[in-house]
Amino acid sequence: MRRFLLIAVPYTWLLALFLAPFVIVFKISLSDIALAIPPYTPTLDLGAGWEGIKTFFSGLDFENFVWLTQDDLYWKAYLSSLKIAVISTAFTLMIGYPIAYGLARSPEEWRPTLMMLIILPFWTSFLIRVYSWMGILSQEGFLNQFLLWTGLINEPLIILNTSIAVYIGIVYTYLPFMILPIYATLDRLDESLIEAAEDLGCSRLSAFWLITVPLSKNGIAAGSFLVFIPALGEFVIPSLLGGSRTLMIGKVLWEEFFSNRDWPVAGAVAIVLLLILVIPIVLFQRNQQKQAEAEQ
Amino acid sequence: MQSTIFAPWEDPEAKPLIRFQNVTKRFGTFTAIDDLSLDIYEKEFFALLGPSGCGKTTMMRMLGGFENPTEGRIELAGKDISGVPPNKRAVNMMFQSYALFPHLSVWDNIAFGLRRDGRPKDEVAARVAEMLKLTRLEKFGRRKPHQISGGQRQRVALARSLAKAPKLLLLDEPMGALDKKLRQDTQFELMDIQEKTGTTFVIVTHDQEEAMTVASRVAVMDEGKLIQVATPDRIYESPENVYVADFIGDVNIIEGRATLEGEETYRIDWAEGEAPLRATSSTRLDNGQSCFLAIRPEKVTISPERPEGAVNAVHGKVLDIAYLGNISTYHVELASGTVIKAQAANTRRISRRSFTWEDPVWLSWTVTGGVLLAG
Ligand SMILES: Nc1ncnc2c1ncn2[C@@H]1O[C@H](COP(=O)(O)OP(=O)(O)OP(=O)(O)O)[C@@H](O)[C@H]1O
Ligand SMILES: [Mg+2]
């Protein structure tokens, strides 16, 4: 009985917060657009009894999913999102790894402070931080003013409203998610392993590649998934920093919902996005599980 | 024996392979190695012995290149090695913590150093196979370090450090986790390797028997200082001070005052109501100087009657008997309360042995049976 309760808690949680919304969205994605409240048909009319249920199900179809394949906006948006998510994950890794490494190597008494500095940005609103990037990256922004002042450039660079600004925004926002798991694995790394590798003929650099990197791959994987998964569906950063030309599926989704008020298509977009995300999420889970097993 | 033929430390012409010159190592304000000077010669099997925390690993780490001396210099084959990184030293170290690479199989761990040298594949494979055979790990080559036992891990660490056949091999407690049989086999293997390859070994051990078996010389350390460096038999038979005598093997220590009686013979007055003892010493002691007499239990004879003509004889009763199979150690309490240990071979069955608890007995030893040390 107690075991049942213990298992029931997470499953109820999952049911309430994931499965139920998923079923609702899935149902909407199979519906047709309508000028009504809510803006789709059919709606389930239980008052009509068996007949009502039958008409309800006969009204559902996969039209919207077919539509997604017909208009090239959607798959372009998916591909563009994938590209942006992959590239910004790679950048986050390239910047995050050295920071995590430095953190793990820093003197013990400094670490809490350094860790604080990494988490500190989370203490202000995410929106405010993205807006302040607009102030930095715009044509009259701090960055351009500074570069003009140093004489490195003569004309202001156009960064805001390009995909570069989106990359900067995503890397900036998700960097701590990359740093923390990598730091956790590097912190546990036994220093004597590096010494042993050097003793056996490795240079500093080859010891890093042969020992440190393989032993922190769990952290790299965890960090990459934690950046990649939210970056793929990102909406705020591309719409604030990316301008109209940056195509991301999160933005398309938002427009379908709020501008077009086409809930069924938006639902279909969301379901496909979820399916795309399920692959990395499952991989992530497998990675976590393997890690847990290796530690036993 | 080896030590009578092979004794480069007695040859003033011989060039040491390793030379510690007034080496001091401090960690913050803590002095781990204190002004230590030591020469180790090529092809030696040098054992470091000492209590936990006395600085054995620190000495190894300085040789391996993981620590630099705070003061003094360390020479390897005549060259100062401070600042030479570990991968540029012809030295391999077996770490006390093993430091096996957890993401690599046993096989790959052993092959690691060979591959870094860029040796051809089949040569690496042959060498690894040889090492696996030596350490009896043939069956475990494909396993990861976390899938084998503690003793097996230790053998992997040993195999990995041996694989490159370096000029100097540093072994930090290489056999602590092995059972006696395997340990003896490994000891002989090491000695064999040493003879074949001429590798110089520096080995840390907590096992005196091991040090005695394998070492050409033994260094007894305490608190970052060398207390005595000598061949195993000299360390055992003629320790220079009470610390060494007490540290190596079982020993009775009697404190007293020495008086010169004849040529190199001293009378030792040691306890109220006990007859004075006699012992020889080649180092001079002043009359009335406090001294220690160290007597190994196996040099003490136990008998029911006072042996005729015994120079040193004391009377007491058996307090305790430790049965060790081939020998027994008798703890005998004297009238003064002092307990002296004597060892006797068990030539008879245990039920028929001559002494039992509470029996009055005599303990005796010769004038050269004990070692007289200045207090
Ligand atoms: N990195 C370090 N920082 C501070 N103190 C250290 C450091 N390394 C060693 N010490 C100290 O130096 C002393 C000698 O250490 P070492 O590891 O050489 O001992 P050991 O003789 O090998 O002992 P054991 O037999 O337990 O292995 C110890 O008191 C230890 O605490
Ligand atoms: Mg040690």
From TrEMBL, chain A:
It is found in: Cell membrane. Belongs to the binding-protein-dependent transport system permease family. CysTW subfamily. Its main location: membrane. Residues 78-284 form the ABC transmembrane type-1 domain. It comes from the Bacteria. The chain crosses the membrane at residues 84-104, 116-137, 157-183, 220-243, 263-284. It is a multi-pass membrane protein. PROSITE patterns: ABC_TM1. One of its GO terms (biological process) is transmembrane transport. One of its GO terms (cellular component) is plasma membrane. Pfam families: BPD_transp_1. This is ABC transporter permease subunit. Keywords: Cell membrane, Membrane, Transmembrane, Transmembrane helix, Transport. InterPro entries: MetI-like, MetI-like_sf. CDD domains: TM_PBP2.
UniProtKB/TrEMBL annotation, chain B:
Residues 18-248 form the ABC transporter domain. One of its GO terms (cellular component) is ATP-binding cassette (ABC) transporter complex. One of its GO terms (molecular function) is ATP binding. It comes from the Bacteria. Its EC number is 7.6.2.11. Signal peptide: none annotated. It catalyses: ATP + H2O + polyamine-[polyamine-binding protein]Side 1 = ADP + phosphate + polyamineSide 2 + [polyamine-binding protein]Side 1. It holds the Pfam family TOBE_2. GO terms for biological process: putrescine transport. Keywords: ATP-binding, Cell inner membrane, Cell membrane, Membrane, Nucleotide-binding, Translocase, Transport. The keyword ATP-binding applies. The complex is composed of two ATP-binding proteins (PotA), two transmembrane proteins (PotB and PotC) and a solute-binding protein (PotD). NCBIfam families: potA. Belongs to the ABC transporter superfamily. Spermidine/putrescine importer (TC 3.A.1.11.1) family. Part of the ABC transporter complex PotABCD involved in spermidine/putrescine import. Responsible for energy coupling to the transport system. This is Spermidine/putrescine import ATP-binding protein PotA. It comes from Antarcticimicrobium sediminis.
